[in-house]
Each structure stands twice: as C-alpha cells, then as structure tokens.
Amino acid sequence: MDLLLIPSPLISALVSFILIRKWIPVAFKAGLTGKDMNKPDKPAVAEMGGVAVMGGILAGLLYYITLNTFYLNQKLYNLDLFAAFSTILIISFIGFIDDILGWKIGIKQWQKPLLTLPAALPMMVINAGHTTISLPFGDLSLGILYPLLFVPLGIVGASNGFNMLAGYNGLEAGMGIIIVGALTYATYVTGSSWVSMIGLVTLGSLLVFIWFNWCPAKLFPGNGFTYLIGSIIGIMAILGNAEKFALLLFVPYIIDFILPLRSGLKAEAFAKVNSDGSLEMPYEKVYDLTHLMILLIKKIKLKVYERDVTISIILIELIVMVIGLLAFFK
C-alpha cells in the first residue's frame, strides 16, 4: 500500500473529531437531544452523531479519490467509488430526515426499507459488484438480476438491519468497528485493496465516534449513523464480492430481528434501570438480544450494567467474525 494513502483514515478521524466537538453544543442549542434511557436519571444527550461521522468519511474518501485520480492513476475504480460516495450521501440524508421527522410523521418500521431504497440507485445503475456468485454446487451467473435485485437488497437490508441492534452506549459504534474491520481485512486479502480503503476511512471516523459514544455517552448516533454504517457494510460486501461473509457477520442482527416478533414488534430494547444504574429485564420474556444478554449475565454476576451488555454483544460479534474468517479466508 502506498504511504500516501495513510492520511485517508487520519483525515476521516480528524474531520470527525472536529465536527463532533462542534456538533455537541450545537445539538443542545437546537434541541436535538434525547434521553439516555439506560441511566437512572435519564440525562439529555446530544443526538444525530451521524452528521459528524458522515463528514469525516466523505472527507477521507475525497482525499483517496483525488490520489486515485492524479497520483495512482487508477481511474478504473472511480466510477464505483463515486457510486459508493453517492449512496453514502443519499442514505445519510434519509437517516437525518428520519431522525428529525420520523417520530413526528410516524414512520413505521416496515416503511423504513422503502424509505432507504433510493440510496441503492447509484450502485444499481453502474451494475456494481460481481454478477456471478459461488454456490456449493458451482458458480451461478445472475446477470441483470444482480443489480436489479441483489444490490438493492444488500444496501437496504444492511442499512436497516444495522439499525435494529441499538440503544445501548457504544453498541452501534462497537459493532460497526468489528464488522467494517472484518470486511476491510477480507477485501484486502482477496485483492480488492481499493474497497478496503473505504473500510479504513470508515474505521477512522468510527474510532473517534466511539470515544464520545462509549458509556456514559456524550453523543448518540441516530438513524443517520446506523443507516450510514449499514450502507457502507453493504457497499463493501458488494464491491468486494464478500456477500456471504457479510451475511454471516449479521447473524446477531438476524437473531435480534427474530426475537421481537414474539411481541408483535411492540417490545423495546431498553432495560429496566435500578437506582444504582444496574439493569433488570424489562419484560418477563426475552424480546431482544440485549434482553438475552441481561438474562445470561445475571446468571454469572449479581448486577448487570449497560457496559456489560454492550461488551457481551461485541464479544459475540468478534466470535462470529473469527468463525467467518476461518471459514472463508483460510
């Protein structure tokens, strides 16, 4: 890797850091705050941290595209990179609209995939990715079905799926670091280093963001963040031909999708909070992966705290990642 590429994630991290420091007081002044529901006193915390993360990622990508064009002379990938850039912009805009207006206009969960569908268009129109997929019985060429069906399914599925497992300090950022980090490694070792640069740039912003989002959080991610990181996961999987690996990495999210179905999607992930900050099961039954973690951890230790739940789920994702790396990239 050329040494001049190293500043890409550093630029992403620096821009995100500056924007976060500026955004937190602005969010409080604008009333863009939310209650930290897993704390006894429910303190107000600045929301929509995805604004700063998006700014950092776009800055890092622009630097990389500039190098790609004028120094590395690898213009072959610029169309794909700008399609990814456009998808990131569109999905972030949709996420911010959802953050600001979603609760006012009553956007339902089943409507959100439709809301995020336009973000897949840039990747669809350039026929991004590899139309041939490997199956146990051989290779299958999907042809026009791949950009028309699998690309939007990947972008919409990843962005909305990543949005489900949330609500605990550091959880979304921590999971994003593991998944994006895994895809960065996977795409690099399989010869798609230009795709891994998207991951490195994203990691630069995520590592800064988690500093402000870790318990006790000073900044919440918001839907703009979860849609953004989810879409980047989908983009990297499509461009790097790593769809099967990405799907495996989403196993915790699939579990988290199934569990709430038992409540008719009415149960919330937030725990019941004691006066000392420890957490209890909010319902008699398990309706979320976070509920399951509270239940299991209480069998090991007397008191469970928000940090325990976040770390336990991140550890599960790490185990899934290791299994995937051993299975697909020996």
TrEMBL record:
GO molecular function term, any single one: phosphotransferase activity, for other substituted phosphate groups
Q: Which domain of life is it from?
A: Archaea
Compartment(s)? Cell membrane
Q: What is its main location?
A: membrane
- CDD domains tied to this protein: GT_GPT_archaea (cd06856)
Q: Could you tell me which InterPro entries the record lists for this protein? A: Glycosyl_transferase_4
Q: What biological-process GO terms show up in the record? A: cell wall macromolecule biosynthetic process; cell wall organization
Q: Which GO terms describe its cellular component?
A: plasma membrane
| Signal sequence range | none
Alphabetical UniProt keywords: Cell membrane, Membrane, Transferase, Transmembrane, Transmembrane helix
Q: How does it sit in the membrane?
A: Multi-pass membrane protein
Q: Where are the transmembrane segments?
A: 6-24, 45-66, 81-102, 114-138, 144-163, 170-188, 194-212, 219-239, 245-265, 309-329
Q: What is this protein called?
A: Glycosyl transferase family 4
